Amino acid sequence: MNAGRLAPSPTGAQHLGNARTYLLAYWSARSTGIKETGKKLILRIEDVDSPRVKPWAMAQAIEDLRWIGIDWDEGPFIQTERLDLYQKALDRLIQANQVFPCTCTRKDIEEAGSAPHFDHEPKIYPGTCSCWQTGDPIPETGSFSWRFRAADHMVSFNDLVLGTQSCNPAKDLGDFPITQKNGSPSYQLAVVVDDALMGITEVVRGNDLIASAFRQIELFNALGYSPPTFAHVPLVLGPDGRRLAKRHGDTRLSTYREQGIAPERIVQWAIESTQIDPANFDWQDLNRDDVTLDF
Ligand code: GLU
Ligand code: ZN
């Protein structure tokens, strides 16, 4: 059984760029070729990033999806209701010595880390706490995050949009956190456990998450799961060439809804800017360039 997913983070309003990505995931899941093999679409709310989660944003994201005509087969699944699953995976990684407790502060890493290989990434972790081995004493609760040991080998995958992507996790990414210091799972851990347990075979998301794909592939393998296929799709940029944000004006879907704009207009804009024909879906047709907002 093949499965895709919609994975909104309720950290704020969903905007036009998010809508375009969700529509691509939806069209891909609903395309004829895939329907024959029984692909389902799962809605999952990624609300583990606690301080940034907004109480109103989950219901609004669901309403936004429905408004632009997207439906799904299972869910919504809520990540904060699945914490025991992430804890079990973490316990396995601790037993396997794949992670270590890291007490470094952001400032420590900023000062001692090396320059990131990918854009918009933090400094590469200098390895300060990595000599810890399974069975060694664990620091005081709340004082550390669990960090995954990035392996010194080449990882490659074939992205449905970007083609072959490769990197060396140890050199290009460094050891990365899979929990926060308060013990809650990080995005990387929750996503991998969910994608694995939900049987996700195709991940469609913005190309700003390409570096995370390598981290996630390492986590899938460490947990004994096979990684899904990835489609990292172009982002929507503001007229200044930067990623769509508040300063570019109000592109919230909820605002368009309040203004009485027809959702079909948004779908039509997504069709034109992606150059995809939803009735005859083919990743080959996708416009590979980041698109400038002209809605
Ligand atoms: N929840 C993430 C977001 O809204 C998407 C993560 C993913 O697709 O893996 O940006
Ligand atoms: Zn550390």
Automatic annotation (TrEMBL):
The keyword Protein biosynthesis appears for this protein: yes
Start and end residues of each Glutamyl/glutaminyl-tRNA synthetase class Ib catalytic domain: 5-268
This enzyme's EC code(s): 6.1.1.17
GO biological process: glutamyl-tRNA aminoacylation
Residues in the signal sequence: none
InterPro entries given in the database record: Glu/Gln-tRNA-synth (IPR000924), Glu/Gln-tRNA-synth_Ib_cat-dom (IPR020058), GluQ/Sye (IPR049940), Rossmann-like_a/b/a_fold (IPR014729)
Listed transmembrane segments: none
Keyword Metal-binding attached: yes
Top-level taxon of origin: Bacteria
Keywords: Aminoacyl-tRNA synthetase, ATP-binding, Ligase, Metal-binding, Nucleotide-binding, Protein biosynthesis, Zinc
GO terms, molecular function: ATP binding; glutamate-tRNA ligase activity
A cellular component annotation (GO) from this entry: cytosol
Family stated for the protein in its record: Belongs to the class-I aminoacyl-tRNA synthetase family.
The protein, known as: Glutamate--tRNA ligase 1
Species for this entry: Rubripirellula obstinata
Underlying gene: gltX1
